[in-house]
Amino acid sequence: MFLCFQGVGDVSGQGPYIAGITNRNTNLGIRGFMLFSIGVFLALVLNLLQVQRNVTLFPPDVISSIFSSAWWVPPCCGTASAMIGLLYPCIDSRLGEPHKFKREWSSVMRCVAVFVGINHASAKVDFANNVQLSLTLAALSIGLWWTFDRSRSGFGLGVVIALLATLSTQLLVYNGVFQYTSPDFLYIRSWLPCIFFAGVITMGNIGRQLALYECKRMSGKTHQD
Amino acid sequence: MTVRERLREKISAAFYRHGLLCASYPVPIILFTSASILACCYPLLRLPLPGTGPVEFTTRVRDYTVPSHEPQGDLGERPDWYRGPPVAYIQQVLVKAAVSPWDSTLVPVDVFRSPLGRVFSLLEEIRNHVHNDGSGVRSLEALCLQVTDLLPGLRRMQTVLPEHGCLLVSPGNYWQNQRELFDSDPDLLKTVHQHEPKGLHTSATLRDLLFGVPVKHTGVSLYSRKRVVTYTITMVLGSYDARFLSSLRARLRQLHPSVNCSLREDHMVHVHFKEEIGMAELIPLVTTYIILFAYIYFSTRKIDMVKSKWGLALAAVVTVLSSLLMSVGLCTLFGLTPTLNGGEIFPYLVVVIGLENVLVLTKSVVSTPVDLEVKLRIAQGLSNESWSIMKNMATELCIILIGYFTLVPAIQEFCLFAVVGLVSDFFLQMFFFTTVLSIDIRRMELADLNRRLPAEAGMPPPKPGPLRPREAPPPPRPSPYTITLQTPAFRNLRLPKRLRVVYFLARTRLAQRFIMVGTVIWIGILAYTDPAGLRTYLAAQVSEQSPLGEGGAGGLPPHLGGASVFPGAGGDPASTLSVLPAPAEPTPLPENQSQGHHGAPREGVPHQAQAPPLVPQISWGAEDEEGWRRLSFRHWPSLFSYYNITLAKRYISILPVIPVTLHLSPREAIETRHPQDTRHPPPPSLKTNDLPADLTFIGTYGEGSKQVINPPSLSRVAALGLAAGVLLVLLLFCLYRVLCPRNYGQNGVAHGRRRRGDLPCDDYGYSPPISEISPLLLRGHSMDIECLASDGMLLASCCLAGQIRVWDAQTGDYTHTCHNLGGGTEPGGGVFDEDEGYPLRRRTTPRPALFEDQPDLTPLIDTNFDSQPPSHLLLTPPRDGFDFGGLVERAYLEHEPPSPGLTASYPSPSPPSGPPPQRRRSLGAVWAMELRGNLIAAGRSSGKLELWDAVEGSLRCSNEDGVSGITALAFLNNRIVAARLDGSLDFFTVDINKPLGLLQYRGPPGRSNIPPSPCYSSEDVISCQLTRSVQCAHQKPITVLRAAAGRVVTGSQDHTVRVYRLEDSCCLFTLQGHSGGITAIYIDQTMVLASGGQDGAICLWDVLTGSRVSHVYGHRGDVTSLVCTTSCVISSGLDDLISIWDRSTGIKLYSIQQEVGCGASLGVISESLLVTGGQGCVSFWDLNFGDLLQTVYLGQSSDGQGVRQLVVLNNAAIVCDFGSELSLVYVPSVLEKLD
């Protein structure tokens, strides 16, 4: 992932050069692909964290446990993250309030780290009950939003997407398409919305940062015209 | 004043004082901080070192009791994990078995088949052993650890590992502990091997588990030289019963005595295992660490403008890390032992604490004015950011406090650590980092001072601008040449050090030789260690000669063996015994021997002594005492993990081994043979004795090694090779990135400074073809050129002597039609007070001679001054390719040396100067000059504004409304804006009273894309009227004045920029944002306004709204020049750095480090071509990549004057001043691009 970001920096650092040879759609595609791969990667890693919660010691074939969940979950996460990452800058530009708060890669990395940390905490820390877990995660997620986003549109979109995602997951589970690995059903349900919210904020942050280069390119183009 | 403001002020003042303190006493403060870090970290010494290796503790067997759960304080050396009963007791029975005596009729399989077969009887013995004493009957079944199912994932081991019963493992498990299966197994090795995992494995394999000794010590192979088979029977006991164990030990010893065994049996070892970190747990951990490093990378990348970027980045990281250590240390000190996994929460702690404050501090300090004292800078920087730092810290503390109230123990602990970490981080930032920063800045200033001193000696004053003192030394005599052509060979190559190092390496081929030597050594090692290779051969040689090397060759007398290397040493007496028996009939072995070995083991002792040479040596050494140590430390955890029993944070007790020695007779070995066993080895020839057997054995060894040993070793070698290859590729890649001067189009790394010397070409390699650029020197001025103005067609220059010369900047195909009648019209005001002399000069005579001097220059000079004055004196017809060398003018200078004024011959037909209008400095120096159309507007130090006809050289009008010196002029359309020294701004309107033919274009219109400038003819009456005067436009002198797109922008020393509308001279905006005087302004047709100040800041403004778009600190010291392209902003500063910024984001793309005293003048020729003035040269840069394209030297000696002014003409030529000369440089390649 680091290399991936590095690649972003390199590509966009060339500024006019790349801008000259890429059109808008290609750029969109690159961004989408990048977000997709980040989403898939995070889904795999975080899934692994959740798997660890249930098994104390791993059988020797560990790698297969990465893919222990349904195969279509990581692509779904990737697609969702690509959509979110593209949606955020789009909404920003639609609303006409460009996101100016902490627009640096270091801040984005910090955000990703905190997101992984929230997942880690939800997986590793034993909570007394699920209400406590929910409240803690909610506080952490809102703290994440306050620290790295602070935009109303980001919050609104995050809440909406989190609710939708939770709802769709529940529907899937009720229809028997997908089963949680853990028998502890309430546990999953209590952290799912918060994790979704934090994930939406994180991916939105990444997407905005990626879109920054495109913005620059567009502005350069208008000036050229 | 609200509470908030008061608080803010107090905090700011406190930080200011603190900054002063830190910068004043750097060394004591750093010492103090280091001492406190060490003091806080001291409690960490008591914490165990992290690691997953097991810890041991040894107790005596004799008085062993199960330790109680309660910690007992009195036992100091007892580790704190030694509490409660262990998970299990491990009792191993170490069996060493050999067929003795060995004879040639035996096939290699016999080495291990019968010894392994004995395991079943041993197992039987152990299982059935019952200890009966007064207290009751004990058996293994009662004592052993009962296991249930294997883990679901281990189905394939189900047949091998015991389930639902005693955990008792031995090699017999391969055959389900059934002798029948063992006997009917045609290939034992295959059975053993088929359970081995494929590929590379590091942890314990099944073979290790069952044999209980490392693979290579088992001796279970076709060619073990010792012919001793070693294995263990491992009993895992759930409870400890000393009497049962001792009776078992006694029984086994009685059955199978080990004579020379002196193993200690009085110590048991307790092994405590740490938490196991599995692969699956590592992946998220590695991910978080990668994110952490990315965060640190992106953060420290922002540190800029300091002496040592990496030093400060290191200091920042040290600050964060040691604050973490301090927090852990403090928490430990106050009795809060960390229960969290340190490695796991560490990245999150770093992320929470963050590097932001450190970076903010650096930025703030760096952006303070450079001319302040270091102390004050630090103090100011600190106090500027004090409020935000305190606010951030309060916010973070609040968030963490909220986390603390979640009442989850783990989160509470994390929060506690984070709070202590935050506080200690704040402490370290304030003391450690601030001090380091002050030291760094001081170093930077010292370095700057050292660097500037020599530079200033040979340089014009470092701050060029209108306020520069006007006195300048008389110009140096021009040397007799005109044009310098720089061939690539002569181009000055100043190689950077790293390139020199590389070239040195390349010359001496050090790396190549090193690699060659390394390869040879490596091949040697490979050949030696290869199983089929040299070492085996050598070992075979040695074993032939030494009597003790091989078991079978034990009886070889040394003198005989030493005599011959070849196997023909068949005459040794011991072998005669075995010559006779054929391999097909192995039975006729000597009866006594077989009997001796076959009999009761008690008799084995004397018999061993009796026939020592043929008996494989079974020796018991100290290494057997704790044979389990040679196993992987993951041996026991993996054994237990198969049954889902974790050993993490628990311990097992390993009891002393029970040694069992087995001697088997050859007959027994043969009896237990499987029919297929004999097929494997080639039948030994009849005349073989022990030695040939050995040799054939070695021969098979080679083949066998390919089958048995080679698969793992091959895979290992392949993996090693792959790893080495990957490493090599990475290394090469890094080397390439580091050493390659061009990073092709990747600016990601180019954030560092690019030196001028990094030419894209070099002596050793490829030099990119660059079309030759030759400068054209225009001479004529007697002193340094002060002002330079051009509208693309004409070029006006003014020197310190007050002389204005007009040059044609056109290409040769242009024909000029303006008539120069200036000679006749005497300008008013007596400005041309020397004009009388000019018509009398005779120029025709020297000219041909001069041209003979420079015949080769003719094609090179594009400029053709066809503006040939049809003077009334000399009717020289304009010639094609007419050369205007400065020589001519200089010749005139030499002709009349005593009267410099005479050089100012005004309508001189002398080609080089064209029609140079010229006057003396009678009314003050010309401080500003503009050229539009054919009017030259000149502002004088006396405050007088003059309008000159550029073609004719006549003064058309003048205006003396102001008295303060004109520091800057702007001439746009028919308006002139003059900025004065007192800060006032005057708007003039130029009126032309001309009935017809007002607007003509000089030159073909397609050539020029600038707005058409009217051409005034000489008949017009031009008047210049002051339309509006803005008094006190600025509080301090106006330094910069730019006009474009109907706006006039002024920058002043009062730190503000003002924007006026040109039409009605109405002030639109006053832009505030700089903390120093404005030194550079850029505005263009697209209403982009950029300003740079003495504070090194660059601001981009929106001219329409007056809002600041971005604000960056780019330079230490003044920004001397600013240019924008459509995508980026280019700035140069007094720090000789040219920085290229992204225009929309304000992110620095890269910067170019120039030589000292160079970077004052800039110009953009096209979107991607930047030209900078240097010491006697101009350099062309590719803006996209930051590559130096070419450096054009203007004179022969490059140590001449620096280029201070640089004007880019729109026909892709640049004009720059070069002392008293002008240099016209064409960039032909750009011309093509522009077309």
UniProtKB/TrEMBL annotation, chain A:
Principal localisation: endoplasmic reticulum
Record's GO cellular component terms: SREBP-SCAP-Insig complex
InterPro entries named in the record: INSIG_fam
TM region(s), chain numbering: 28-49, 69-88, 131-148, 155-174, 186-207
Membrane topology recorded in Swiss-Prot or TrEMBL: Multi-pass membrane protein
One Pfam short name: INSIG
Biological processes, Gene Ontology terms: cellular response to insulin stimulus; cholesterol biosynthetic process; SREBP signaling pathway; SREBP-SCAP complex retention in endoplasmic reticulum
Keyword Membrane: yes
Domain of life: Eukaryota
Protein localization: Endoplasmic reticulum membrane
GO molecular function, one term: lipid binding
Keywords, comma-separated and alphabetical: Cholesterol metabolism, Endoplasmic reticulum, Lipid metabolism, Lipid-binding, Membrane, Steroid metabolism, Sterol metabolism, Transmembrane, Transmembrane helix
Keyword Transmembrane assigned: yes
Family to which the UniProt record says this protein belongs: Belongs to the INSIG family.
Free-text function comment from the UniProt entry: Mediates feedback control of cholesterol synthesis.
Protein's name according to its UniProt entry: Insulin-induced gene protein
The species this protein was found in: Oncorhynchus tshawytscha
UniProtKB/TrEMBL annotation, chain B:
Record flagged with keyword Endoplasmic reticulum: yes
Protein's GO biological process: cholesterol metabolic process; regulation of cholesterol biosynthetic process; SREBP signaling pathway
This protein's name: Sterol regulatory element-binding protein cleavage-activating protein
Family assignment from sequence similarity: Belongs to the WD repeat SCAP family.
Chain segments carrying region Disordered: 455-479, 547-613, 896-920
Keywords: Cholesterol metabolism, Cytoplasmic vesicle, Endoplasmic reticulum, Golgi apparatus, Lipid metabolism, Lipid-binding, Membrane, Repeat, Steroid metabolism, Sterol metabolism, Transmembrane, Transmembrane helix, WD repeat
Pro residues composition bias: residue spans: 459-479, 908-917
Principal location listed in the UniProt entry: membrane
InterPro entries tied to this protein: Beta-prop_SCAP (IPR057042), HMGCR/SNAP/NPC1-like_SSD (IPR053958), Quinoprotein_ADH-like_sf (IPR011047), SCAP (IPR030225), SCAP_N (IPR057041), SSD (IPR000731), WD40/YVTN_repeat-like_dom_sf (IPR015943), WD40_repeat_CS (IPR019775)
One Gene Ontology molecular-function label: sterol binding
This protein's record includes keyword Iron: no
Subcellular location, record wording: Cytoplasmic vesicle, COPII-coated vesicle membrane; Endoplasmic reticulum; Golgi apparatus membrane
Task of the protein: Escort protein required for cholesterol as well as lipid homeostasis. Regulates export of the SCAP-SREBP complex from the endoplasmic reticulum to the Golgi upon low cholesterol, thereby regulating the processing of sterol regulatory element-binding proteins (SREBPs) SREBF1/SREBP1 and SREBF2/SREBP2. At high sterol concentrations, formation of a ternary complex with INSIG (INSIG1 or INSIG2) leads to mask the ER export signal in SCAP, promoting retention of the complex in the endoplasmic reticulum.
GO CC, one annotated term: endoplasmic reticulum membrane
WD repeat residue numbers: 1071-1111, 1112-1151
Membrane-topology annotation of the record: Multi-pass membrane protein
Domain SSD intervals: 281-439
Transmembrane annotation, as ranges: 20-45, 277-298, 310-336, 348-372, 393-411, 717-739
Xref: PROSITE patterns: SSD, WD_REPEATS_1, WD_REPEATS_2, WD_REPEATS_REGION
